[in-house]
Amino acid sequence: MIWGIFAACCLAICPQMPLYAQEDLPLYATAAVLMDADSGRVLYGKEENAVMAMASTTKIMTCILILENTSPEEELSVSAYAASMPKVKLYIQKGERYQVKDLLYSLMLESHNDAAVALAEHVGKRYLPQELRDKDAADYTAEESRQAVAAFAALMNDKASKIGCQDTWFVTPNGLDATQTFSLDDGTTVQKEHCTTARELALVMSYCIRRSPCKDAFLDITRTQNYSFYANERSFSCVNHNAFLTMMDGALTGKTGFTNKAGYCYVGALERDGRTFVVALLACGWPNNKTYKWSDTRALMQYGIDNYFYKSFLEEGVAFDEGRLKALPVRGGQTDVLGSLAYAGLEIAGRLESENSSLGKDSLELREGMLLRQDENIKVVYSAKDELTAPVERGTVVGTIDYCVDGVVYRRETVVTADSVEAIDPQWCLRQILNRFLCLRP
């Protein structure tokens, strides 16, 4: 009895305390995440919300935005600013012209910093004043190039916000450490660094491979082992440095990164048996610990494979019983018989992602299931109004069906009225009186 009271008090004091202990994996990374790419749920986390530098893992966002905003066959012009980027670089030169497609392989296979800036300028300049939009990038001053890059960074931050990232901020398209200064209305300034969290980096990768309209193109580029092209009377060859692609069965994609501040970083994805896992690692060692990211990635992926399995929201025992959708009484509604109560039937109108979904507002596809441990269950919560007031139009939202795990909604279905019910008015009353009078006549 005493122990029961003690346990209840502990739960009341610590409502967010997990009901189970997460296995302690021996990871090198300062921050790490294993994520279910379809639900955005963190399956394993270590300092997953710590805000840190991310180095060239940045380039997954650069790549997906270029794919979504350009055609691979478009040509771009190289500015002096893009050509001035530090190593690692393709050594493009001011005034040269390249196809977007070729520089995307340069960006993702070799992680070239100059390619990233040239691509960012190509899209970012569209958001500059007309005179700069019309101007060839090769003729840009360094300041004009920075304006174009800043416009592209704004696109990156807007996309991150829509994906569900709240602690991510992009300053550069290549991941080089940078700080952005903002002036406030009171004259003071604040600074924001180029940063993310392990969880949000995994969210970005999940978007790139599962929800972006250009996900197939993203995978085609990042899975390519070797790519060669010829431009400006020069030959170029790019080799994929993502060793994870050949480390585990089902490896999908990934991107490495390193700066002195960020350390070794990595984000990668694996698909096996209908399950898609994403791993994100930040500050996973410094020279000479270049291989730590591979051992951490393997350990986290194997943990997911061994412990998490797909469960459908629609399978027997989980799916909502539509027999629970009882018609709602409608006060003041017209009926066929005077004095009776009107009712509106209910139906499931649409199956939409919950607004508090961990995947953000860009997630529009129907989610049919998620990864769970064997000891976890999906809780279905149905809530609806008790009654309605006429008039009621068909399709009026009256309730929701939420599919929850650990209190988080991963799927929401909308319950609406299946009937329209008009309000009682003088004309209806007159008809009812006449009908009753005529029925009472001999």
Please name the defining characteristics of this protein:
442 residues, alpha+beta, 5-stranded antiparallel sheet, 4-stranded antiparallel sheet, elongated, disordered N terminus
Question: What do you see in this structure?
Answer:
Strand 10 and strand 11 form a beta hairpin. 29% of the residues lie in helices and 26% in strands. The protein has helices at 2-13, 59-69, 80-83, 100-109, 113-124, 130-134, 142-163, 198-211, 215-223, 292-307, 426-440; strands at 31-36, 42-46, 75-77, 97-99, 179-183, 189-193, 226-231, 234-239, 251-259, 263-272, 275-282, 309-312, 328-331, 342-344, 346-352, 369-372, 379-384, 388-389, 397-405, 408-417. It is an alpha+beta fold and 442 residues long. It is elongated, with a radius of gyration of 28 Å. It contains 11 helices and 20 strands.
